[in-house]
Amino acid sequence: DYFGDGLSEELLNALAGLDDLRVAARTSSFAFKGEDVDVRTIADSLGVETVLEGSVRRSESRVRITVQLIEAEGGFQIWSEDFDRPLEGLLALQDEIAASVVSALLPRLRGEDAARMRGGTENVAAYDEYLLGRQKWHTRDVPVLREAVEHFRRALALDSSFALAWSGLADAIDGLAFRDTSALRLVPEARLAALHALALDPELAEAWTSAGVLAGEFDLDRTLAERALRRAIALRPSYAHAQRSLGGFMRNAGRVEEARPHLELAVRLDPLSGLIRDGYGTLLLLAGEAAAAREQHEVAAGLEPAAFGGPLVWLADTLGLTPAEAAEASIAYATGVGLPDPVAWGVVGRGIVDRTWRERALAALAATEGLEPRARHQLELALGDHEAALEYLQALRDVGAGDLPTIGTRPQYDPLREDPRFIEIVRALAVPNGYDPVAQAPIWPEPAT
């Protein structure tokens, strides 16, 4: 399963490198894996005209890949082929398939103009570990991210010249440290991994994206982050992760209208990604478009309840949910993250919208075990426990956690913006202290006296 996923993603990346093609990103494409869905439904959902589908069979030493390209509107097969090769030739085979697809789609391009697989390896065992690492990185789940880090390390132990694996290691550590402060000690390793990937292949979009995200989240170097991400986008405009990351950094700095086209493009490239929908919803909320923001957050929660059901709960009041709707969203989120009594937990969402329920909601939250600290903090803040929220932020500041730069413009922090302790934090981070949708400008804290 992971082998088929990884091969699909590498083919996707090769085709996405062509200016002539817009290719739906991994999360959205993979949503249909194993489903018996009409090709026209798939095409409509992804906003594409053609669909590439196939299957992979693997033995100890060989791989057999069946691929077909389908014109969605009429359901006609444009091209199909079987590839049977030894595993040692896998990277060349990916190139061959990509070139064949491009030749079928765009006759004006010569086969050699197809995007080549960059930063790869001929070591099958290393490639295996890389594919497992990438599959687990996409989950954004803390225990699974730890496993992803180890897979990338093993891939590099087998082939230290594997540039994509260096970039993967940087991404996995970034995702882990962003969510788990105990992993912040690994950030220097991630920085070195991104630089190593760039040294091996200076035109690898994934490596520029890794370097840019790390610079923005952990070094607070927004200039370097923007330059690196713009370089990644120049190399691969259809890389949704780079578009989302650049748009997110701009949004966090209060550059909302500059961020909008990048996040809108990320949604078009990967419409079934909860992560991208959540980030776009935050931008719309900042811009004063609450109804559209609610729609995006509801889509994100429906796509990935455990990861993105939470924002729909702690933003329930700002998004205009009724107490009953907030309770329902709270139950769905608790179910998604596997809390033991999700129905009883509906009181938490209701308490965010209805102040008369807040004491009961805070008591239910306090009695809940197994909730990640970041989610608990957001819920405490939404329920009016500002002291607990400030203590959490000050603790994050002490360790330099990657989530801090987002507090400058996120609407849930508006109740804290006049507190001197909060003002001190945003000054130290050099981020805005809110966003004015009427003036369409960030609000900067007054200089310290």
Present the secondary structure layout.
Layout: H1 2-16, H2 26-30, H3 39-46, E1 50-58, E2 62-71, E3 76-86, H4 90-105, H5 124-137, H6 142-158, H7 163-179, H8 187-200, H9 205-218, H10 222-235, H11 240-252, H12 256-269, H13 274-286, H14 290-303, H15 305-314, H16 316-319, H17 323-337, H18 346-353, H19 358-366, H20 373-382, H21 386-399, H22 420-429, E4 435-436, E5 441-442
Antiparallel strand pairs: 1-2, 2-3, 4-5
Give an account of the 3D structure:
This protein is mainly α and 449 residues long. The chain has 22 helices and five strands. The strands form two sheets. The chain has a three-stranded antiparallel β-sheet with strand order 1-2-3. It has a two-stranded antiparallel sheet with strand order 4-5. Helix 17 runs antiparallel to helix 18. The termini are far apart.
From the N-terminal CA to the C-terminal CA, the straight-line distance is 59 Å
Taken as a percent bin, the fraction of beta residues is: 5-15%
| Elements, N to C (H/E) | HHHEEEHHHHHHHHHHHHHHHHHHHEE
Ranges where pLDDT stays below 50 over 5 or more residues in a row are 108-116
How many DSSP H or I helices? 22
Radius of gyration, in angstroms, nearest whole number: 23 Å
Largest sheet composition: 3 strands, antiparallel
Q: What structural class do helix, strand and pairing data support?
A: mainly alpha
Strand element count = 5
Shape: globular
Portion of residues in helices? 55-70%
Q: What do the pLDDT scores average to? A: 89
Strand sequence of the main sheet, in spatial order? 1-2-3
Q: What's the quaternary structure here?
A: single chain
